[in-house]
Amino acid sequence: MTGITISDLRDDLSFGSSVEGVTFETLADESVREQLREAFKRRGVLVFRNMEPSSRLQVELSKVFGPIKDHPTKTTPRDEETGDAALGVIDMHYIPDDEKHAAGGLIEFEGQVLARFAPWHFDHCYNDELNYAGVLRCPIVPPQGGRTGFMDGVECYQQFSPELRARIEDLNIIYTLDTRLSTMRFGVNFKPVSEDPINQELLKEAAKFPRAMHPAVWTREDGSKALHVGPWMSVGVEHHEDAAGDTLLDDVCHEINRLGKGTSAYWHDWSETDMLIWDNHRMLHAVEGCDAKYERQTLRTTIKGDYGLGYFEDGKKVGEVSRDVA
């Protein structure tokens, strides 16, 4: 059986590999599946090239790395190709001048109006449980822009100054299910122009979610420390919702933005035949946005696997709505 080839994404990156030769046939070989799992553990991001552009193949690839987890929010659109909503293939589709497919609203950044912009974040930060990984593909690629960026939290932590590392050690960050860019408070480097209409429905669903706490820095199994702060959906520092805590979180988020412009980040230029997986416990990711006149679509599957460090405020569970989240 034909094998696969794996190579580093870039010589100067501490993470990321490019993979060629993945098909339904090669995925049937358990030795190939184990090779992919080992590469993913080491590199944190795998980019699969020249793939059949199929949600079914995306699901099959996702299952190599663990069981699939449905998305926590029911208002998020699902892909129709697989015919099984439980597989959780979510559809993030922006169509210009189509309210149903606004998908994220518009922002102004460096003088340009952009669609599908997403600040640095990790997935399911608003939940007490994270997912292990996400698998993404981009069936509709804009002619320019629309790249997805990734940064290694281990490298980010090392590149933070010792003073800033000391300030965030042992602190938890508070997150909420509020994806509106107009309410984002920390690390803001853009101007909101319009909101996604789906946010109104999402806010109703958000009332079910108490505020979630996740560590700003956590220690991985290999002993390395990973910075794990997302500017998007963060609302404060636990036990420090005051001016000093807000200043600290803003400093951290602006430093993340600064690193995201440098050589520490990998920005993926999409092809319709690419698929990509990233470690959601280790990596931060973002979307640079594209000109609002262009259509863009991404489809994502989610892999189960929590790191066990997040929790809801006051030990609440989803659905236990109190006055502060109603």
UniProtKB/TrEMBL annotation:
The source's domain of life comes to: Bacteria
What are the UniProt keywords, alphabetically?
Dioxygenase, Iron, Metal-binding, Oxidoreductase
Cofactor names: Fe(2+)
Keyword Iron attached:
yes
List the Gene Ontology MF annotations in alphabetical order. Answer: 2-oxoglutarate-dependent dioxygenase activity; metal ion binding
State if Transcription regulation is listed as a keyword.
no
Q: Which residues form the TauD/TfdA-like domain?
A: 15-301
Q: Which InterPro entries match?
A: TauD-like_sf, TauD/TfdA-like, TfdA_dioxygenase
Which family does the entry's similarity section mention? Answer: Belongs to the TfdA dioxygenase family.
Which protein are we looking at? TauD/TfdA family dioxygenase
What organism is recorded for this protein?
Mangrovimicrobium sediminis
